[in-house]
């Protein structure tokens, strides 16, 4: 028996990776499931990389070992590229069709990567690409992209969608509950359709 279902959520500072991991943790509490999590923030406040490790039903530590993640949820194409080595051979990648080019690329006059070349590099993985910005705008707020991505990945997470949606209600500010539950449902529909 496998000890845990391991989810790595990656993005850059301000994209809401920690909130997304908190929603999964809250859904585990709702279902009375064991959960362990850890975040690394780096230079998050300056647009740096952020990673959130979530281990459902795990008996051991909070950090996921590279090559063992069951699910990688990437809020940015470059972060998907950077963390793809965490996926297991049977792992699944759900990625936002969004690309933030790091400032040093411009400062050092380097060629900026493009969406097509990144997706070509990721093509050998079990991949679903979502335009979270479009769905977040449809839900009513561009800032709900993280919840769109969680909805898109929800079919892969071994928790009931109702538990995840209730966890969204509990974790987001009260004035944004309607927008975020709509974002979750739109993401879930889009993820199921891919």
From TrEMBL:
One of its GO terms (molecular function) is oxidoreductase activity, acting on the aldehyde or oxo group of donors. Coiled coil: none annotated. SUPFAM superfamilies: Pyruvate-ferredoxin oxidoreductase, PFOR, domain III. The keyword RNA-binding does not apply. Keywords: Oxidoreductase. InterPro entries: IorB_Oxidoreductase (IPR052198), Pyrv/ketoisovalerate_OxRed_cat (IPR019752), Pyrv_flavodox_OxRed_cen (IPR002869). It comes from the Archaea. Residues 13-189 form the Pyruvate/ketoisovalerate oxidoreductase catalytic domain. PANTHER family: INDOLEPYRUVATE OXIDOREDUCTASE SUBUNIT IORB (PTHR43854:SF1). This is Indolepyruvate oxidoreductase subunit beta.
